[in-house]
């Protein structure tokens, strides 16, 4: 998870990174994926290859959206800022 956060910030210092889905809602299973939302004005084509190069893959499901789409996610699901999750969670996410 730390790699996702640091890579997003390296490419766009203004980016925001959130965890959502079953992990954020506290109902994940060992087989669950880990949904990550990266909010940035950069294109996914700029961010995703960097993450893949750095070994970020399954179980992470990465969603890259522009800032104007953030409200749609907020209405649909619980979002937790990645920094907050990393600072407070006792449950480690898959290898970062």
Give a verbal description of the structure.
By secondary structure, this protein is an alpha+beta fold. The protein has one domain (2-85): Beta Polymerase, domain 2 (2-Layer Sandwich). Helices cover 40% and strands 20% of the residues. It has five helices and four strands; from the N terminus they run αβαβαβαβα. It has a four-stranded mixed β-sheet. β2, α3 (44-53) and β3 form a beta-alpha-beta unit. α1 crosses α3 (44-53). It is globular and about 30 Å long. The model has no long low-confidence stretch (mean pLDDT 92).
Brief descriptors of the model:
single chain, four-stranded mixed beta sheet, Beta Polymerase, domain 2, 4 strands, alpha+beta, 96 residues, 5 helices
List the helices and strands and how they pair.
Blueprint: H1 2-11, E1 16-20, H2 22-25, E2 34-39, H3 44-53, E3 60-65, H4 70-76, E4 80-81, H5 82-88
Parallel strand pairs: 2-3
Antiparallel strand pairs: 1-2, 1-4
Helix pairs in contact: 1-3
User: Unreliable segments (pLDDT under 50, ≥5 consecutive)?
Assistant: none
From the N-terminal CA to the C-terminal CA, the straight-line distance is 5 Å
Fill in the CATH topology.
Beta Polymerase, domain 2
> Helical amount among residues, as a percent range?
25-40%
Going by CATH, the architecture would be 2-Layer Sandwich
Radius of gyration computed on alpha carbons? 12 Å
Could you give a short account of the major beta sheet?
4 strands, mixed
The number of distinct structural domains comes to 1
Task: Please state how the strands of the largest beta sheet are arranged side by side.
Answer: 3-2-1-4
CATH superfamily annotation: Beta Polymerase, domain 2
Strand fraction band? 15-25%
> What's the average pLDDT?
92
> What is the C-level CATH assignment?
Alpha Beta
Main structural class: alpha+beta
Principal-axis shape: globular
- Helix-strand pattern, N to C? HEHEHEHEH
Annotation, overall tally of beta strands: 4
**Tally of helical runs:** 5
GO molecular function, one term: nucleotidyltransferase activity
InterPro entries: NT_sf (IPR043519), Polymerase_NTP_transf_dom (IPR002934)
Domain Polymerase nucleotidyl transferase: 5-71
Protein name: DNA polymerase beta domain protein region
């Amino acid at each position: 998870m730390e790699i996702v956060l640091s890579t997003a910030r390296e490419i766009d210092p203004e980016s925001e990174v959130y965890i959502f889905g079953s992990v954020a809602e506290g109902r994940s299973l060992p087989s669950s994926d880990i949904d990550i939302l990266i909010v940035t004005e950069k294109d996914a084509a700029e961010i995703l290859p960097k993450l893949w190069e750095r070994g970020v893959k399954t179980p992470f499901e990465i969603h890259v959206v522009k800032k104007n789409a953030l409200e749609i996610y907020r209405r649909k699901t619980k979002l937790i800022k990645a920094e907050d999750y990393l600072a407070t969670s006792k449950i480690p996410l898959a290898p970062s």
